[in-house]
Design brief:
By secondary structure, this protein is of the alpha/beta class. The protein is built from 12 helices and 7 strands. The structure holds NADP nicotinamide-adenine-dinucleotide phosphate. The site of NADP nicotinamide-adenine-dinucleotide phosphate has 33 residues, from helix 4, strand 2, helix 7 and helix 10.
Length: 287
């Protein structure tokens, strides 16, 4: 199977190209080469490859889908209810010259997840990157959490991510990348966040275990754990949920979806491949 991201031949080619370019290119540690490869679409890390991003109609998922498309990946966008937003993400990717489709699928339903992968494969011939991003945040003290709120969160975040990662384990081509969304909240666990934090701690374990299960196939599996990011997931809980965060963050602002998309793109790049089975915290220093 094709293994373009992790192909060790690439580093040999890089050295030979630098050597051919002469001492100036070698002296600058490859900066000249980096400029030419960035400008060549055929050399983008996602060229000829496909990515599925669950929950990508808005927020971190939408930013990730658009970012991976800019890296050359054909992208399958997914939503639960906001089909208009999913179609808009696809339209934005296509307007920039990328390739994308969208499909509605509830990640809590294993058949729907299988259909999502099938749609991707039909459109793009296979899958190289899966980002298990779909998630919800229901918060409240133990004493007040309803059965329905708890069950829906487990169904989406724990079972939904399992459904997605199981399909990824079966279908991602050798040399690919699998990423699941954890949260920096697992480091703090503020009152009222125990149930949500539990679902996100689970992603850390999923990533570590799956990285080991896929040993020998050159597939890197990691969790990305954002701090507070300015999306509907937080804003649905009111301005109170955001109060004080920029002031408490060493980098002095709230996270944006694009901040997290960049980290995911880095892990999906050739240079990110040695990170495997880890949880990457991305929170501007607020941990
Ligand atoms: N925002 C933060 O501060 C933060 C911090 C740490 C971790 N995270 C994690 O990052 C991920 C994305 O969060 P976000 O802030 O971008 O959330 P968001 O803006 O609320 O977006 C959630 C996305 O997930 C989709 N979705 C929800 N339930 C789904 C289901 N059952 N099946 C398929 N898609 C579903 C939504 O689709 P519809 O539009 O159709 O509803 C939407 O595209 C989540 O896993 C979250 O736990 C977020």
């Amino acid at each position: 199977m094709t293994d373009t991201i992790n192909n060790p031949d690439n580093s040999r080619r890089t050295f030979l190209t630098l050597a051919a370019a002469g001492p100036a290119a070698l002296a600058f540690g490859g900066a000249a080469l980096a400029q030419t490869t960035d400008a060549d679409p055929a050399r983008l890390p996602g060229t000829g490859r496909a990515a599925i991003v669950t929950g990508s109609s808005r927020g971190i998922g939408a930013a990730t889908a658009k970012r991976l498309a800019r890296d050359g990946y054909a992208v399958t966008v997914n939503c639960l209810v906001n089909t208009d937003l999913a179609a808009q993400v696809v339209a934005e990717i296509e307007a920039e010259g990328g390739r994308a489709i969208w499909r509605q699928a509830d990640v809590a339903d294993p058949d729907a997840v299988r259909a999502l992968f099938a749609a991707n494969n039909e459109a793009f011939g296979g899958v190289d990157v899966v980002v298990s991003n779909a998630g919800i945040m229901n918060v409240g003290p133990f004493a007040d959490m309803t059965d329905a709120a708890f069950d829906r969160m487990i169904a989406t975040n724990v079972k939904g991510s399992f459904n997605t990662l199981r399909e990824a384990a079966r279908q991602v081509r050798d040399g690919g990348r699998i990423i699941t969304l954890s949260s920096s909240i697992i480091l703090q666990v503020p009152p009222g966040a125990a149930a949500y934090a539990g679902t996100k701690a689970d992603q850390q374990l999923y990533a570590k275990a799956l990285a080991r299960e896929l040993a020998g196939r050159n597939i890197s599996v990691n969790a990305v754990a954002p701090g507070a990011v300015d999306t509907q997931l937080l804003r649905q809980h009111g301005e109170e949920a955001l109060r004080g965060i920029p002031e408490a963050t060493p980098l002095g602002r709230l996270g944006q979806p694009e901040d997290i998309a960049e980290v995911i793109a880095l892990l999906c790049s050739q240079g990110g491949g040695w990170v495997n089975g880890e949880t990457v915290f991305a929170n501007g220093g607020l941990s």
